[in-house]
Amino acid sequence: MSCPPFDNNSGVLEWANLRWPQHRCENQKASMTPVQPKLSIDDVSLLMVLIDANPFFWSAANTTSLPFSKFLSHVVAFLNSVLLLNQLNQVVVIATGFNTCDYVYDSAAAGALPNQRAESLLQKLVEFVVKDEQLGKEDSVDGIGSSLLSGSLSMALCYIQRVFRSGPHHPQPRILCLHGSPDGPEQYVAIMNAIFSAQRSMVPIDSCLLGAQHSAFLQQASYITGGVYLKPQQLDGLFQYLSTVFASDLYSRNFLQLPKPVGVDFRASCFCHKNTIDMGYICSVCLSIFCKHHKNCSTCGSVFGQAQTNAPSTSNQKRKTPET
User: Fold this and answer.
1) Quick one: which of 121, 144, 193, 321 could link to 105 by a disulfide (CB 3.0–4.6 Å)?
2) Short-list 294, 264, 288, 291, CA closest to 277
3) Are 206 and 174 in contact (CB under 8 A)?
């Protein structure tokens, strides 16, 4: 359906369905086909691990079967196994907090012994958690707040771009998100920009969900970039899930039967109230999404005209035949 014409200072606010029905998913494959990651002749990997260090999430998770200390023991064992698969593999860990995110470990700069890796990672992680708690003392959070996932994804992509520019021969990068906090609708635009940037760079985003609910953002990230999305059923065996699914390099994945998500939540978040919606209004100028009708677009400033719902369609009008 073509959009009505508009000038430079006016736009059209269109009502659209923001949720893809199940029977239309196959028709959208042409425009949303997951990107196949580029392969190399070797199996050297650059693994960017994004750890959810949100204190609000882990304080609520301490009563479950996976406290934060046990989670770190699984992660350290997984990182050591990745580095043991190939001596040229590189692992970079980024901590994702409630207020900030930062690099906490880089295997290229840390010690070579496994105990030195664990000590360096734990020390930097403790310093990060203390810093994140100090920044969040003035903020009051109801329930479990969302982590700064958009910031950690951007930092991972910046590091990968720096590796790309270091030379023609570099390890094949991929991102692994160990996430448990709920999605933050206010980060929708930033996260989607990071996802499309990873898709353009052919960097797959793998997702391992630790929380009770699925993440619509990470479902879309793994689907669009060609990564793996997994929500473990038994968190006590987290190391087995990580080593079985996420330890393999990109070339070896062609010969493995990795888990595939049953469905992907493609719902968007409105730009006005940051709520996840099924139906909404879309600006025809900048494609901003709103849950309610507005007089003008808060993103590009376009003035919306009145929708001509009663106007007859040109396709329904009979075409006059030229007189001979």
Assistant:
1) 121
2) 291
3) yes
Residues 6 or more apart whose CB falls under 8 angstroms from that of 322 comprise: none
Name the DSSP class of 296: B
pTM equals 0.75
Q: Could you tell me how many residues make up the chain?
A: 324
Chain centroid, CA 61 distance in Å: 22
Helix (H), strand (E), coil (C) string for 76-89: HHHHHHHHHHCCCC
Q: List Cβ<8 Å contacts ≥24 apart for 165-171.
A: 170/46, 171/40, 171/44, 171/45, 171/46, 171/88, 171/89, 171/90
CB 146, CB 190: distance < 8 Å: no
* Average pLDDT of adjacent 10-residue blocks, the chain of 324 residues: 45 56 46 49 84 86 74 92 90 93 86 69 86 71 77 96 84 94 85 94 94 88 93 91 92 87 76 77 80 81 67 50 52
